[in-house]
Write a structure and sequence with these properties.
Mean pLDDT: 86
Distance between the termini: 62 Å
Low-confidence stretches: 9-30
């Protein structure tokens, strides 16, 4: 039968071990923090690029990026956002090699790659357009950024609209998420966020 003295000694040893493990875990986190997922959620995706070939989550690395989800038939939010992001990049004196602008279609049923290419390059020839070959590919890309979209209109109507997340995602050069710019966010705050992204 254990004595109070031996139980007390056992508890001291046990709590000492707990403290050592906690300190070790803290040191490991500080000196080797866990890797952040590419994009936001880490979901893998592959989309067709207007630059040719496929664009995957691994291609997020290399250059800071502004990424927006939308569709070419969008009447207001998408063209406004593309115009604003290209204007901000120009005003900051940044080149496409310093800041990429990427437009991802949420409407692969209508947005062909050629159509998307013409659309995005109408705002700036350097804008990259991405579109899935299927709804599944599109859903994977949306899941990588936590994006929502849904068709709105009568069944069979070719002129349906698409309700979708209206955020511009800021992705750092290492491919990890930094923040967002809201639709119609004041230009000064949006530019400050882009500066921080590029200086990063």
């Amino acid at each position: 039968m254990a004595t109070p003295k031996s139980l007390r000694a056992f508890r001291i040893v046990l709590w000492t071990l707990v403290a050592v493990v906690a300190l070790g875990a803290t040191a490991l986190y500080l000196f080797r923090p866990p890797a952040r997922p590419l994009g936001i959620t880490g979901q893998e995706f592959a989309l067709n690029s207007t630059r040719g070939g496929a664009f995957t989550q691994d291609d997020l690395r290399g250059v800071p990026s502004l990424i927006f989800f939308g569709y070419t038939y969008c009447p207001d939010v998408c063209p406004t956002t593309l115009a604003e992001t290209t204007a901000i990049r120009a005003e900051l004196g940044l080149t496409p090699d310093q800041l990429r602008i990427i437009f991802v279609s949420v409407d692969p049923e209508r947005d062909t790659l050629d159509m998307l290419k013409s659309y995005v390059e109408g705002f700036d020839p350097s804008v990259i357009g991405l579109v899935g070959s299927s709804l599944e590919q599109t859903e994977n890309a949306k899941a990588a950024f936590g994006v929502f979209s849904e068709k709105f209109g009568e069944p069979g109507d070719p002129y349906y609209t698409v309700n979708h997340t209206a955020l511009t995602f800021l992705v750092k050069a290492d491919g990890t998420f930094q923040g967002t710019i809201a639709y119609e966010e004041p230009k000064e705050t949006a530019m400050a966020k882009v500066k921080r992204l590029v200086q990063g």
